[in-house]
Design brief:
Number of domains: 1
Oligomer: single chain
Largest sheet: 4 strands, antiparallel
CATH class: Alpha Beta
Strand content: 25-35%
Structural class: alpha+beta
Helix content: 10-25%
CATH superfamily: Dimeric alpha+beta barrel
Number of helices: 2
Radius of gyration: 17 Å
CATH topology: Alpha-Beta Plaits
Length: about 130
């Protein structure tokens, strides 16, 4: 089964907060952890894909407008306390294994090497129904 593991990060309360303000050695340790983590999942054959995402200030919501033209607005969810910072898609035998992987991702080192314990949302990726349905 495939699962999407979505990493949610707290919104910085100001421009002087967040990962961009960490000391360089803490930022490097965090990125090194993520590279090592992804490499391990690749070696076990469980990693399907993973990406970090741009911050919420770059997010936009698009809807089809008149004649199908894109209508673009700021977004999403300006009032949210957290934002989607990145994701993994993993393929594993059980939901419990997906939870184990999510817990490891959650414990990525943060400022001062302290585990972030960030929330990781785990959702099964559903298969599409047959075309000839």
């Amino acid at each position: 089964m495939r699962y999407m593991l979505m990493m949610h990060a707290p919104r910085p309360r100001s421009k002087t907060a967040g990962i961009g303000t960490w000391p360089p050695e803490d930022f490097k340790a965090h990125i090194k952890f993520m590279h090592r983590f992804n490499k391990e999942l690749t070696e076990t054959g469980e990693l399907v894909g993973a990406q970090g995402l741009a911050g919420p200030e770059a997010a936009r919501v698009v809807r089809a407008g008149k004649g199908g033209a894109p209508e673009v607005t700021d977004g999403p969810f300006a009032e949210a306390k957290e934002f989607l910072a990145g994701y993994w898609i993993v393929e594993c035998e059980t939901t419990e294994r997906a939870y184990e992987i999510a817990a490891r991702a959650s414990a990525a080192p943060g400022k001062g090497g302290v585990p972030l314990n960030m929330p990781i949302e785990v959702r099964e990726v559903m298969s599409a129904p047959p075309v000839d349905m």
